[in-house]
UniProtKB/TrEMBL annotation:
This is AraC family transcriptional regulator. Residues 188-287 form the HTH araC/xylS-type domain. PANTHER family: ARAC-FAMILY TRANSCRIPTIONAL REGULATOR (PTHR43280), HTH-TYPE TRANSCRIPTIONAL REGULATOR EXSA (PTHR43280:SF2). It comes from the Bacteria. Pfam families: AraC_binding, HTH_18. Keywords: DNA-binding, Transcription, Transcription regulation.
Length: 300
């Protein structure tokens, strides 16, 4: 039986670790580590859970995740099929500002970088207009060796710090509640249960049973550790998946998307979609198509 860990150890034989992942799918369990990480998705699509929020990810996306921020890059369902030829490919840079690099971050010249990392403990997604520059800086870290890698890393931090854009946090908790190993594993199992069954008619009783808790205890526990009610998290998961289906144009109609994402009423789908996204599904799709058309015209 595989023993799951919530706090994942990262090798400490280097002050900066650059990792290339090329696998059938991403590591499928919620986890955390003492290192901050910057991840560039090169291939693959899915949902990132960071703290208590979720975000779709796809090729070209870059995320910074703060120290000890619980997270999970969950590949889409099709990546787990036995006959799948899909791949999850990414470059991740790990670093611990309070570990081997701590003395460097105490230098006066590094103060701005240290404050930047502290301010973004809840993580952020790199704005699209900066993705190319940041990805190239990450690639430079990956291919460099010895002290050259350290120089390339600080150049990467410089490029991140110089981004002139509002960086919204990935997690809504200003300070994520302390979570023990067992609690982290339990929450990860709950997340996975919901992610695997969101398209079905799952109830509070179903998820409470999967967590080996009474419905009343589960409600208190889930709210305390995620800031969500079960229904709010389930709705966010379903709308997140609906947005992906809409923008991938893999649907016969908007009502088909609603039903495939677990909604039994198109009216309820429209209401929840507008509450979470700020527009109707049709308005969201039209806005996305217009943005794609504008980018295509600019590129040509």
């Amino acid at each position: 039986m595989k023993v799951l860990q919530f706090t994942i150890p990262v090798a400490h034989d280097k002050s900066v670790i650059a990792e290339q992942v090329n696998l059938p799918h991403h590591y499928p369990y919620l986890h955390r580590h003492q290192e901050a990480q910057i991840t560039w998705i090169q291939e693959g699509e899915g949902t990132l859970i960071a703290g208590n929020n979720m975000h779709a990810f796809g090729p070209g996306d870059i995320f910074l995740l703060g120290v000890n921020l619980p997270h999970l890059f969950k590949s889409n369902h099709e990546y787990y099929q036995p006959d799948s030829t899909l791949r999850a490919k990414a470059i991740t840079i790990f670093f611990n500002p309070d570990g081997l690099l701590s003395s460097m971050f105490e230098l006066p010249e590094m103060k701005a970088f240290k404050i930047f990392i502290q301010q973004h403990q809840q993580g952020f997604k790199v704005p699209e207009e900066y993705s190319h520059k940041i990805s190239q800086a990450m690639y430079s870290v990956k291919k460099a060796k010895g002290c050259d890698q350290l120089i390339a890393f600080f150049n990467l931090l410089k490029n991140l710090h110089m981004m002139n854009a509002k960086l919204g946090p990935l997690s809504a908790f200003g300070s994520f509640p302390g979570i023990t190993e067992n609690e982290g594993i339990r929450i990860g199992n709950i997340y996975n249960f919901i992610m695997q069954n969101y398209s079905e008619s799952i109830t509070l009783e179903d998820v409470a049973k999967a967590a080996y808790m009474t419905p009343e205890s589960f409600c208190r526990y889930f709210k305390k550790h995620t800031g969500h009610t079960f229904i709010s998290f389930l709705n966010e998961m379903r709308i997140n998946e609906a947005c992906k289906k809409l923008t991938e144009h893999k649907f016969a109609s908007i009502s088909t998307v609603a039903y495939n994402c677990g909604f039994k009423s198109i009216n309820n789908f429209n209401r929840v979609f507008k509450y979470l996204i700020g527009s109707s599904p049709r308005e969201y799709l039209d806005s996305y198509n217009n943005n794609v058309s504008n980018l295509t015209r600019v590129a040509s």
